[in-house]
Amino acid sequence: MSALTQSTPAAAQSDAAPEKALRPPSYWPFVVPALVVVLAIIIFPWVFTIWMSLNEWKVGSATTFVGASNYLRLTSDPRFLEAVGHTMVYTLLSVVLPLILGTFAAVVFHQKFPGRGFLRGVFIMPMMATPVAIALVWTMMFHPQLGVLNYLLSLVGIPAQLWVFHPATVIPSLVLVETWQWTPLVMLIVLGGLAAIPSEPYESAQIDGASLWQVFRFITLPLIMPFLFIAGMIRMIDAVKSFDIIFAITQGGPGSASETINIYLYSVAFTYYDLGYGSAIAVVFFLLIILLAAVMLYARQRMLWTEITSGA
Amino acid sequence: MNPGHINLRQIVGRIGLWLSVLVIVSPAILFFLWMASLSLKFEVDNAAYPPVFIPERIAWKNYADVLASNRFMTYFVNSLIVTGSATLLALIVGVPAGYGIARMAAHKSAIVILIARITPGLSYLIPLFLLFQWLGLLGTLVPQIIIHLVVTVPIVIWIMIGYFETTPMELEEAALIDGATRWQVFRHVALPIARPGIAVAFILAVIFSWNNFVFGIVLAGRETRTLPVAVYNMISFDQLSWGPLAAAALIVTLPVLLLTVLAQRQIVAGLTAGAVKGG
Lengths: 312, 279
Fold this sequence. Notes:
The complex is a heterodimer of chains A (312) and B (279). By secondary structure, chain A is an all-alpha fold.
């Protein structure tokens, strides 16, 4: 009897063991081809970029190892420092405005109305459309004499603007395009958040006679915060890297008034063919994006922490 | 009860809702209508002030001119080849990879995908540009196909991991017990179930590859431009009149816009699941 009861767990174990042992390695063949591709087009370029950034590397001339001097050069390059400033302004505006407008749009699209599906499709068209094609049409719309935007302004009595043709208005004008293009992504993410909210708090708020703004401020907003945070993070990463729109509309101009890090990186690497210095910019640029993401995560943690401590 | 009062409130609410809808969607609608208007007007109307919205004479000629130019067809074919190849290759390597990662629960490997998502496209261009130069591939479409994988492969893997995590394991386990190999299970059990996920990955990979501009301006020569690069070059060099330019822009982006309206559900699912974007 005792022998039998002892052998049962052992038998069960030996039954399960081969299956368990089989599982982990046998899925590797599925991943290997992708791994090779990722190594070749993502990992290799990264390692090579870091190596290049430590060299004086210009197309058509010999390369020499120069250590950190490309990085030191960055700290005293006024054009780079200016580009960092432009990037920060551009990014801040291109995160905040789509977040506000996208949240509003999500609240509206969360309601039921006829034609909602189709209109949502129309609303997300700007972010799916080919950026260069849109940029071309926006350039025509920004035209100071013939552009439709100045005509629209004149209808409401606002004087004509120079839009992307003046250093003071070029970044806000580009942010206008970026906001028009990417508000839909924020809307979609927040809409996903709204769909997950239960209806009970709204019902009790309605009974209590809360106003629309109160309902939004004290019920909706806290519940969609995690989604707003994700949307903000994605928006930040994309806005920092924004290239197509800026390049196609202004190429960083007028002068260098809209030259962001990415646009400057392009000039250094593919106009001056200074690949070593360009690689250093690419590395610093990447670290900057990571740093911004870390700051946002930290701010989010702090916010959660204050919420918890003030609640307790 | 005061039914009159409630009705009034409801009506005001409805009006407010519709006004909000109007405010939200009109920038998109007006923009694309204006784009179409620009593309269908003769130069006289495009240079008129105040602007002409609906012209008396419609300039179909703008489209005919764009389509008739030899180069435009070349660039269209280039775009088809680059986007088609990059998407197909990404599906071939990415769908099994997504499956493997999901089944091994190797979530840490997704960090590579995140890094790819964060890295600016230009960072890949510098080393790969040199590599293609050494290999003597510049001047062909091969460098663009390869570098578009930077966009398409992470999208496909990311979406497929998410999709395979939601598909049930029971059928696969049953097939394994019946003596099927892992490959057979993948091919005949997992893959057919994953078709909707593959559709999402396919659509997003196509769109972001088709739209890509930054890789082309560096890697494309005169004969190897894709459509976005061709349109950009039209602005700077060849074409100064707005009608044909707007027509070209609309032709380039029309396939994507149609896909957006037709496959809206897949696009929304894909974007909100992974919130991936190429470039």
